[in-house]
Amino acid sequence: MSSPPPVIVWFRADLRLADNPALLAAGETGAPVLPVFILDESAPMRPLGGAARWWLDKSLRSLATDLESLGLRLILRQGPAGEALERLLAETGATRVFWNRLYDPGSVARDRPIKAGLRASGIVCQSFNASLLTEPWDVKTGAGGPFRVFSAFWRVAGPRSGRQPPHPAPVQVAGYDGDFASDSLEDWALHPGAPDWSKGFTDWRPGERGAKARLHAFISTAISGYADGRNRPDRESTSRLSPHLRFGEIGPRQVWAAAEACESRGAAGRAVETFEKELGWREFNAHLMFNFPDTLNANLNPRFDAFPWRNASEDLTAWRNGLTGYPIVDAGMRQLWRTGWMHNRVRMIVASFLIKDLLIDWRLGEDWFWDTLVDADIASNVGGWQWVAGSGADAAPYFRVFNPVLQGERFDPDGDYVRRWAPELARLSNAHIHAPWKADDETLRTAGVRLGETYPTPIVDHSWARDRALELFEGLP
Questions:
Q1: In 3-state terms, what secondary structure has residue 203?
Q2: 88 and 157 co-located in one domain
Q3: Range of the domain at 333
Q4: Residue 80's domain is classified under what CATH number?
Q5: Number of domains in the chain
Q6: Residue 464 bears catalytic tag
Q7: Residue 137 falls in the annotated catalytic set
Q8: By CB atoms within 10 Å of each CB, which of 152, 223, 357, 375 scores lowest?
């Protein structure tokens, strides 16, 4: 006898088995389960950037293997999600579809009519929260509206964050034995072809097992020094969980529970609290995105709509390529291109340089990060850029302009980060590594540095650029 109609589980940004509410609920029905992933880059969805496509390729392969261990086959389909689901329903006779929610405006605009249409057709359609500690509509100000300041948001959201413990992966789920077509990952061409620019991504291990290993390594070694070490790009002091969270290979409830357990074992409480607050920033950015969806493309503070951004394509290219002449900026941009990731402190430095030293629209920087980051989360990416620009909620004041030399000297004091990613400067002393143009000719010659040849001279004078930016910002209506 053939299997009864399956429950379709639509995987999206939740590529894991553990603490996956949609998969858990589907298994609890007792019906066969049919997992599907739909590559939907049609409007209103924002197509994935190149680095994220690389990660998705590896993550889906890992998920397929994990599902096979439960006797489940991952079906791949491409195109508008509503149409793909309708075809699957017709092919299988399924009457139930479960998924975990997404909160970006494109997904909301797509999913709401899909859910309404399915229910109108008699299909049981349920969605769950797998990616946030708190729903973005559940955290409200005293007046009943959304928050715009992180500290106030976290005073409400923080105490709620550990209320729901994570669920283990299902041990036994009935599979669906229907025989029908699935796309192949090779046909999707998610891995870059000629040239293959991802050769520096080898330190990453996409997939649920890689996420768990990364969390374990961080909790067991680095978290105790996180409060102070998280600002040091020259050290392995951060969790590097961001791409795993972005693709849902691990959930925030799992990360929170691991941090809390670490605290109970006697780890430094301040470090754990600081780490949990970083999870809170992720929540806050999702809260802002859901409640102020226009800010993905527009300034939350409309005063900034009048800002006279420069059309400076040569400067933008120099910034993208890590050729600005400021070592900490260039090191960060090169790390990003080669590995698909950049240390968070350096993200703020390079963003400030683009926006305030070069007066280039934050949206151009956000778009570059979207294409080159393996952890390109739309809420956190936009939230971070608007924070630096001063145009967003809880934004850094517009008059806060990062000095790239002082930032380098403070957070990369021995120059190890710059030497790794800008090796042409490796022989410079610590005194000159962050400002090579200040070195005398003999020092440069001894270090093998020829400014303007082996390493660029600064494309702008920071002190002058800072004054220019402040004058323009102060002139906003």
A1: coil
A2: no
A3: 302-474
A4: 3.40.50.620
A5: 3
A6: no
A7: no
A8: 152
Does residue 338 sit in the same domain as residue 425?
A: yes
Of the residues 362, 368, 370, 387, only one is catalytic, namely 362
175 assigned to some structural domain:
no
Contact 289, 379 (CB under 8 A): yes
> Both 391 and 453 in a single domain?
yes
Same domain, 127 and 238: no
Q: Please tell me whether the overall predicted TM-score, pTM, comes out greater than 0.70 for this model.
A: yes
CA gap 290, 306 in Å, rounded = 25
Average pLDDT estimate for 118-126: 97
Question: What span, in angstroms and rounded, lies between the C-alpha atoms of 124 and 373?
Answer: 37
Cβ(433)–Cβ(344) below 8 Å = no
In the predicted model, is pLDDT for residue 267 greater than 60? no
* Helices within 29-149 (DSSP H only): 50-68, 81-92, 105-120
Catalytic residue check, 20: no
Residues 464, 325 share a domain: yes
Instruction: Identify whether residues 269 and 390 lie together within a single domain.
Output: no
Residue from 86, 197, 273, 309 carrying the catalytic annotation: 309
* Residues 53 and 74 occupy one common structural domain: yes
Residue 128 banded pLDDT, cuts 50, 70, 90 = very high
Q: Single out the catalytic residue among 154, 385, 387, 421.
A: 385
> 282 with 344, same domain?
no
For residue 385, indicate whether it is catalytic.
Answer: yes
Catalytic residue among 83, 278, 409, 424: 278
Above 60 in pLDDT, residue 123?
Answer: yes
- CA quadruple 21, 67, 124, 184: dihedral sign: positive
Strand blocks (E) in 189-328? none
Q: Is 309 a catalytic residue?
A: yes
- Residues 376-426: tens digit of each pLDDT: 999 999 999 999 999 998 766 778 899 999 999 999 999 999 999 999 999
For 159, other C-beta atoms within 10 Å of its C-beta total 9
Annotated active-site residue in 54, 99, 256, 281: 281
With cut-offs at 50, 70 and 90, classify the pLDDT of residue 74. Answer: very high
Residue 191 in domain: no
Tally of CB atoms within 10 A around 470? 14
